[in-house]
Specification:
CATH topology of the largest domain: Aspartate Aminotransferase, domain 2
Shape: globular
CATH class of the largest domain: Alpha Beta
Structural class: alpha/beta
Number of strands: 15
Strand order of the largest sheet: 5-11-10-9-8-6-7
Strand content: 5-15%
Number of domains: 3
Radius of gyration: 24 Å
Number of helices: 16
Helix content: 40-55%
Largest sheet: 7 strands, mixed
CATH superfamily of the largest domain: Type I PLP-dependent aspartate aminotransferase-like (Major domain)
CATH architecture of the largest domain: 3-Layer(aba) Sandwich
């Protein structure tokens, strides 16, 4: 009887080639299925066994299987293993399962949207399959969230952001904005002033108002860099130190120290919003959590890593605040379902989140280069802000070209490009600029947006044709 953990076809991986090993492995396994070398219904080795046989990391084998799951070549049977799927070569691919927008649809370049490109469909399905096979909880959800998710989030933050604090714990929420509201509510900010990074997404300002506080702007320069001063009478500050749309300015070490000193000196609190679609640098800057300890709360979610409908977020806070925030969450029933929490724990524990972050980083880098090259002919009249939030470019327009008029003209043409003013708090002086979020756009939609933008700002037909034909 044939050993189910054996693989009878030859596999040759070239470590010197430009193509990743997982792509080479997936391609050779797919070819073996197409040519009948691997029979339909044949059980394949586990990823651990395959990695050992080929002398590669298990991550390579796992990624290759993910590719084949997404293409319909493989099927998983609970408690049994991985098999060659029936009629594998005729199954629709993951791209077809996530159709691109129909021609004529509105192209919305507002930042903060998730991308469907390269979506890990096999991992997504596996996560929900894993969660649905578990028996339902016999009681109400535990306060603070399902333990396996709280542990997975803590490990994710430790591994990707270096956040290590033994006196801090994770609490599960339905999203970063809701987490900010719960944290501020627990801190008793109702009727008080809370400083908010400006410019900032509308949802962040709304979260402060939902807690009953008055949001005031942290003063910053035209590129979104804070000047180091916290407005008077503020009891808390809400910032994204590692970059936030639209400006994406990363808070330097000096300003982090100033903010930590303010929190300790004034008895204030800092709510640091982690942008989880942004992969932190290899050598991260000092963390506010480590600089101000119990005075810092970290809020985040995974909506832009996967899909907005995945309402799973988290708070990382000192144990002294935990009980107060739990009461706020419990009172509002603001916690994801047990199935959603279990699925998210699986995605984190199996490394799918970090792999997705790396892929998004490469995708955004490619698109950012394309956008900047396409807009280069507009310079020097149009100034492109320095690279900030991945997947977002800010265009500062000359004084005689008003951003509001360009925004209106593009809207008539079926393209939404928000103004920088829409990200500022009311009453704040706003620059004459547009915010082009492109990371979430399919290539065709991106070319359409760029073509229409150039048609309004510089109606050069040859230039527009070149951009659309990229």
């Amino acid at each position: 009887m044939r050993d189910p953990e054996s693989l009878t076809i030859p596999i040759c991986l070239d470590r010197r080639a430009d193509r990743p090993l997982q792509d080479q492995l997936a391609e050779q396994l797919a070819a073996a299925v197409d040519h009948g070398q691997l029979a339909l219904g044949r059980r394949l080795p586990s990823t651990r066994t395959l990695a050992e046989r080929l002398d590669v990391s298990r991550g390579v084998a796992l990624a290759a299987y993910e590719i084949l799951y997404a293409r319909g070549y493989l099927d998983s049977r609970r408690g049994s293993g991985t098999y060659v799927a029936d009629r594998a070569a005729h199954r629709p691919t993951a791209v077809r399962a996530l159709p691109a927008p129909e021609p004529g649809d509105l192209v919305d370049t507002t930042p903060g949207q998730a991308t469907r490109e390269g979506f890990p469909l096999a991992a997504w399905r596996a996560a929900w399959r894993h969660a649905s096979f578990r028996p339902p909880l016999p009681c109400d959800l535990p306060l603070g969230g399902v333990p396996e998710l709280r542990q997975a989030v803590a490990e994710h933050l430790r591994r990707t952001r270096g956040l290590v604090a033994e006196d801090h714990e994770v609490l599960v929420t339905t999203g970063a904005a809701q987490g900010v509201t719960h944290a501020l509510t627990a801190l008793g900010v109702r009727g008080r002033r809370v400083a908010v990074q400006d410019p900032a997404p509308w949802a962040l300002r709304q979260a402060v108002e939902d807690a009953g506080a008055t949001p005031v702007a942290l003063p910053a320069n035209r590129d979104g860099v804070w000047n180091g001063v916290v407005p008077p009478s503020c009891v808390a500050v809400v910032v994204s130190p590692d970059g936030q749309a639209p400006a994406g300015a990363v808070m330097p070490t000096l300003h982090r120290r100033q903010l930590a000193d303010w929190a300790r000196r004034e008895g204030g609190y800092v709510v640091a919003v982690a942008q989880d679609h942004i992969a932190p640098a290899a050598a991260p800057l000092p963390r506010l959590l480590h600089m101000a300890g119990e005075r810092v709360v970290v809020a985040g979610d995974f909506r832009t890593v996967f899909v907005p409908s995945l309402h799973v977020g988290y708070l990382l806070m000192h144990r002294g605040l935990l009980a107060r925030v739990m009461r706020s969450v419990c009172r509002n029933h603001d916690q994801p379902s047990a199935v959603a929490q279990s699925a998210m724990a699986y995605l984190l524990a199996e490394g799918h989140v970090t792999r997705r972050l790396r892929r998004l980083g490469r995708l955004f880098e490619r698109k950012d280069a394309l956008v900047r090259a396409a807009l280069e002919p507009l310079r020097p009249a149009v100034r492109l802000a320095p690279p900030g939030t991945p997947g977002v470019v800010v265009l500062h327009l000359p004084d005689h070209v008003r951003a509001e008029q360009v925004h209106a003209e593009l809207g008539v043409r079926g393209v939404v490009v928000p103004t920088l003013a829409s990200f500022h708090l009311p009453g704040r002086p706003a620059g004459n600029a547009l915010v082009l979020g492109h990371g979430h756009l399919p290539d065709q939609a991106l070319r359409t947006a760029l073509g229409e933008l150039l048609a309004v700002l510089r109606p050069d037909r040859a230039l527009i044709d070149r951009v659309i034909g990229l």
